[in-house]
Design brief:
single chain, 179 residues
């Protein structure tokens, strides 16, 4: 079940531009500046979209790290410090998503991103609080909220694609659900 959480985020990462991520989530600001200067003029895409692409790659990496740690030791008994670091990395990316300043046409998808990131923050708090007992209510509730946050994140990504491609909101999501 825990590994399914990670695989849910992969489609949105691929749709928004592949794995264009930075080496560390702490380098987000530097990579945003580089992208702003180089690629937005060439591709015609907005700075906001370029930042979303970078952060999507970073989110994919952060979710992958959480999944790796859970796979290594599902009880988290021997990897609590590593799990804590992975969760903090995820929170940094979530904070960066929340700080994005969208173009006017991307306001609604950005609100969904903010809501998803709020859910990730709540979920990660529960996961950290419950990591001493991964079979307990707090940890399981954190996992469920983590899944909800991932779903919201994916829906926001689909809305970004809809706006970018000039489609009605929800079109891309419906197309992907049919596949």
């Amino acid at each position: 079940m825990k590994l399914k959480l990670i695989s849910m985020a992969i489609p949105i990462t691929l749709l928004l531009g592949g794995c264009t991520s930075t080496k560390e989530t702490t380098e987000i600001k530097a990579s945003e500046e580089k992208i702003d200067k180089e690629t937005s003029e060439e591709s015609g895409e907005t700075k906001y979209l370029e930042k979303v692409k970078v952060l999507t790659g970073d989110m994919h990496k952060a979710l992958g790290k959480v999944g790796e740690v859970l796979e290594k030791d599902p009880t988290l008994y021997e990897v609590q410090e590593e799990f804590d670091e992975a969760i903090m990395g995820l929170r940094k990316v979530a904070k960066a998503f929340k700080e994005l300043d969208p173009d006017s046409e991307y306001t609604l998808p950005q609100k969904k991103f903010v809501r998803a990131m709020d859910e990730f923050e709540l979920a990660t708090t529960k996961l950290i609080l419950g990591m001493d007992d991964t079979t307990g209510y707090t940890f399981k509730d954190g996992i469920n909220q983590y899944k909800q946050a991932t779903d919201l994140y994916i829906k926001a990504g689909y809305q970004i694609l809809d706006v970018r491609d000039g489609k009605e909101l929800g079109t891309t999501q419906k197309e992907k659900e049919k596949e």
